[in-house]
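User: Fold this; tokens only.

Assistant: Input:
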Amino acid sequence: MSYNRCICQGCGSNFATVISSDTELQKEKCPSCGERRLKISGKLSHSELATQFSGGGG
């Protein structure tokens, strides 16, 4: 399974997703602001993927 980087064009937040088409992604809401303005901005590298899911929250 490959992951893509996506960005919310409403609030600028970045996320990882398994969705591979902008058409499908536009059906999803941004977890931060709730808008349906997500756009794929490229594939996630292995190091980016590890950073996304490292869980270092405060």
